[in-house]
Each structure stands twice: as C-alpha cells, then as structure tokens.
Specification:
This protein has 213 residues and is mostly beta strands. It has one domain: Exo-inulinase, domain 1 (Jelly Rolls, Sandwich), CATH 2.60.120.560. It is built from no helices and 16 strands. The strands form two sheets. An eight-stranded mixed beta sheet has the order 1-11-10-9-8-15-6-3, with no helix packed on it. A hairpin with a 2-residue loop joins strand 12 and strand 13. The radius of gyration is 16 Å and the shape is globular. 36% of the residues are buried.
Length: 213
C-alpha cells in the first residue's frame, strides 16, 4: 500500500476565502473546562509525568519523562458530537496534543505533532498508528502559537479541522477502531496529553451534532 503524504505549512495557509471553513455554530456548546481549576478532570498518572497547572484560563501540561496529561471524569456522548479546543506547544519536540475521545463503543486519539513534531493523524485504524494510516499528515507547528482544533464524531465518520482547514476525513465503516496499546489507554474515555513536551490547552468545548446530515 502506498501512503500519500501531504506537507502543510501552517504559517502559509491559503487565504480565508479559500478554506473549507466550518459554517455551523452550535448554540448548545458546553464548556468542559472552567478555566479556573481541574473540576471534572484529573491528572493522568502515567508515571514520570510532569506537573499540571491552571494559569490564565489554560491547562498547562509540563514536560515529563514521557507523557503528561489530564482526563475528563464526567460522562460524554459516544457519537454525534463535536469537540473544539485550542492547543499551543511551548517547549519540546513531540506531540503537544493527543486528544483521546470516544467513538461508539471504542476510542481514538488525534495526535498533534507526534513522531518528532509534525505528524497529525488518528490512532489507531485497523491497528495502524497516526504515522502509518491514511489520515497521516505532516504539519509544521510553531511554538507559542495557538491552534484551533475541531473534531466531529459521527457513527461511521471522524473529521478534524485545524484553524479551519479540514485535515482528516476518515470513514469508519468496516474499520477496526482502537487506541494504541500502552499509556494512552489511561486517557479513555476522554483526555489530553503530551509527550516530552510542554503544552497549553484552553476553551475545551463539546456540542451535539445531528444524527443525519
């Protein structure tokens, strides 16, 4: 199988009028993070993780020996929902955001800046990681710059946008959907994490989506 690789320079994105923007605005969006403390969240005990602090309306996950992150402790839908948040890499050269989220009876992780700092994709599809399945993209992420992320989950489809650009469109029918075996499984059903990287997250929200287009 030949893997198509696309290189995207985030700083050189096309003009706004050319972007496939998300036009709908959910009126029922709910904040999952209150910007003040970790109410409804807990620090994930990976072992060797860095510190987690709340500052200026942000969750800041500090560089650790390997992974550092938080997981949501309240119930969430498993289909027909959208997650939006902002993420920023502060220090380090690996993923500054691994969003683990429910997909039906299973889970997936969206990797932002993995495998040395540029890989984006979903882990895992048919046992293949974000670096080796058809969702793989390579994006140059700048440090100390906020990126707006949107993930839409429907029964047989996951879509991802970064700063309004559609990056992932992954049909899931007849696919095996799972988490990569290892520490990331501790993030289920929903969490955010980094790998040997300091990152900040804010404005984490969820909104329902209609079951049909």
């Amino acid at each position: 199988m030949v893997l198509a690789v696309f290189v995207i320079e985030a700083a050189d994105a096309p003009a706004a009028k050319d972007k496939p923007k998300v036009e709908s605005k959910e009126t029922a969006a709910k904040d999952l993070f209150n910007g003040k403390d970790l109410a409804g969240w807990k620090k994930t005990e990976f072992g060797g993780e860095g510190e987690v602090e709340i500052k200026d309306g942000q969750i800041i996950a500090h560089l650790g020996a390997q992974m550092t992150g938080v997981q949501y402790t309240n119930s969430l839908p498993t289909n027909n929902y959208a997650i939006t948040f902002e993420a920023m890499k502060i220090e380090g050269d690996d993923f500054f955001g691994a969003l683990t989220f429910p997909v039906g009876a299973s889970h997936l992780s969206l990797i932002l800046g993995g495998w040395g700092g540029s890989v984006v994709g979903l882990s895992s599809l048919d046992g293949m990681d974000a670096s080796e399945n058809e969702t793989t993209k390579y994006i140059t992420f700048k440090k100390n710059q906020w990126y707006k992320i949107r993930v839409e989950v429907k029964s047989e489809l996951v879509k991802v946008w970064i700063d309004g650009d559609e990056i992932v469109n992954a049909p899931l029918k007849d696919r095996k959907v799972s988490l990569r075996p290892g520490p990331i499984e501790l993030q289920a059903p929903f969490g955010l994490s980094t790998y040997q990287t300091t990152a900040a997250w804010r404005n984490i929200r969820i909104a329902p989506l209609p079951a049909k287009p």
